[in-house]
């Protein structure tokens, strides 16, 4: 078996690896580090959880140990699709360079330009950035990319999903032709293939088996669920989620609940808290400091359950997540693989439980086709909801807190409206960052795409809307949860 000491890494890098306690390189590391150290281009087909971050950071810093950065001219560039992923790469960078004198800057939305400009002005060895923010700096004339010797593209398939490929192509064009490129993607969609054919030169190709298709360390289940009545389905589904969490008992140390829509992220999180579960929401509309604070609390165990959207949790690297719950079947089968890959990391066991409603069956079939196996069905621990039972439950748990009259159409986005109207602690606080990040826009698009067919965006006054507003509590009329379209609101 390959050892880190066989890989020609700088002694100071080896010392840092020893401190972290890794025993041996993972397959992507053993495959990518030698060609990367030789200055070759690398095409790594691997997803998060395989150790791919170290597979590019370790050779990069070994090679960068020689030479110095000049003002405004970073020597290397790491492009990541999301702020969270960029922040994690930066953390990895700090860990592995602890015995070295290399400098870095992190260019991500939600952090002030001023601070980042000051670092770039001094000169940095490694610039870690999301594509949009990098181009913003470039356009303001603050950054010169002609000294970039190594460029890393991390999670290229995510970049594609998020519409960043034109930005990536532009950035490639701004860096010298002679640069080394280390390119990572979990999948090779035709568009990704095209980019690698255009911008990589005779790359060493290292392909690591997909975690979810090969990784038998994640126990997967699905519960088929149908609400007793259309206007009860949402609260019954949350009740089912609680039952599934309870059924895991002590085994559940920490978990992520994925929802397809960010409106649901807020609703599910609030509902769990109401029932005494410690949960916090994370999605692209929350500002960066809130997202960081939530992630930090989740990492250090203060928060047990994170309720997340795909975009916000992308690349989230917490080594020991015991459970993933899919509150919805994801709209893209690929996302299932990414979601469940948050658990069962670094060889640990993990469990992934998904709820599937009748309207999700097509997406569910796509998931099973992608992973090429049947996901074992789990009985609904509450039994299939019946109308009578749910009426009884409704009387017990959904006593109206106050009488509610329909409000005038306001300028507030739907999620915020929910917070205000249900009197949460966040009421009135605008959770959007001043400059809505691209990932937030992507989520908004996703929210719209995910609307059940035939429903108008606003949906007001339609006969299939909730007409009976019983009260607040755990029940939420569906019109409140509809996505808000700023363009129409003016
Ligand atoms: P990544 O794929 O880069 O997101 O890494 C997934 C996880 O594996 C992270 O928690 C790393 O700290 C961990 N890891 C990376 N390299 C190794 C290694 N050689 N041995 C054990 N764990 C590792």
From TrEMBL:
Name the coiled-coil region(s): none
GO biological-process terms attached to the record: response to temperature stimulus; ribosome assembly
Catalyzed reactions: ATP + H2O = ADP + phosphate + H(+)
Where the record annotates domain Helicase C-terminal, the positions are 239-386
Annotated ranges, domain Helicase ATP-binding: 33-206
Sequence motif Q motif, location on chain: 2-30
Entry GO terms, CC: cytosol
Q: What is its EC number?
A: 3.6.4.13
Family, as annotated: Belongs to the DEAD box helicase family.
Q: Give the PANTHER family listed for this entry.
A: ATP-DEPENDENT RNA HELICASE RHLE, ATP-DEPENDENT RNA HELICASE RHLE-RELATED
Protein name from the UniProt record: DEAD-box ATP-dependent RNA helicase RhpA
């Amino acid at each position: 078996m390959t050892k880190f000491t066989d890989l020609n890494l700088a002694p100071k890098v080896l010392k840092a690896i020893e401190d972290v306690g890794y025993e041996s390189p993972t397959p992507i590391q053993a495959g990518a580090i030698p060609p990367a150290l030789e200055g070759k281009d690398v095409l790594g087909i691997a997803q998060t959880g395989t150790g791919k971050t170290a597979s590019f950071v370790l050779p990069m810093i070994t090679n960068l140990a020689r030479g110095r950065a000049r003002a405004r001219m970073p020597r290397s560039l790491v492009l990541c699709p999301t702020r969270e992923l960029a922040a994690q790469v930066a953390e990895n960078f700090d860990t592995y360079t602890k015995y070295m004198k290399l400098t870095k800057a992190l260019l991500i939305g939600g952090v002030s330009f001023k601070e980042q400009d000051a670092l770039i002005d001094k000169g940095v060895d490694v610039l870690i950035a999301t594509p949009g923010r990098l181009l913003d700096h470039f356009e303001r004339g603050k950054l010169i990319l002609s000294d970039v010797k190594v460029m890393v593209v991390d999670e290229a398939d995510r970049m594609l999903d998020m519409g960043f490929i034109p930005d990536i192509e532009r950035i490639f064009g701004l860096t010298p032709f002679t640069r080394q490129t280390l390119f990572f993607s979990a999948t090779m969609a035709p568009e990704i293939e095209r980019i690698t054919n255009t911008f990589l030169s005779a790359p060493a190709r290292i392909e690591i088996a997909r975690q979810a298709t090969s990784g038998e360390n994640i126990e997967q289940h699905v519960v088929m669920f149908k609400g007793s009545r259309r206007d009860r389905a949402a609260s019954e589904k949350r009740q089912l989620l609680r039952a599934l969490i309870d059924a895991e008992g002590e085994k559940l140390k920490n978990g992520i609940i994925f929802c397809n829509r960010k409106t649901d992220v807020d609703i599910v999180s609030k509902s769990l808290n109401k029932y005494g579960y410690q949960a916090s929401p994370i999605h692209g509309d929350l500002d960066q400091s809130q997202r960081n604070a939530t992630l930090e609390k989740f990492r250090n165990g203060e928060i047990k359950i994170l309720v997340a959207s795909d975009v916000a949790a992308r690349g989230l690297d917490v080594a020991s997540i015991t459970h993933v719950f899919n509150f919805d079947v994801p709209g893209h089968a690929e996302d299932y693989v990414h979601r469940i890959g948050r658990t069962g990391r670094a060889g640990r066991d993990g469990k992934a439980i998904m709820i599937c409603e009748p309207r999700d069956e097509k997406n569910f079939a796509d998931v099973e086709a992608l992973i090429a196996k049947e996901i074992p069905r789990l009985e609904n621990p509450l039994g299939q909801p019946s109308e009578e039972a749910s009426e009884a439950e409704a009387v017990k748990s959904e006593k109206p807190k106050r009488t509610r009259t329909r409000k005038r159409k306001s300028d507030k986005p739907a999620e915020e409206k929910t917070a205000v109207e249900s009197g949460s602690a966040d009421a009135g606080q605008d959770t959007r960052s001043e400059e809505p990040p691209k990932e937030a826009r992507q989520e908004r698009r996703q929210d719209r795409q995910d609307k059940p067919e035939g429903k108008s965006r606003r949906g007001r006054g339609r006969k299939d809307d909730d007409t009976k507003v019983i009260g607040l509590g755990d029940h939420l009329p569906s019109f409140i949860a509809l996505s808000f379209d700023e363009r129409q609101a003016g």
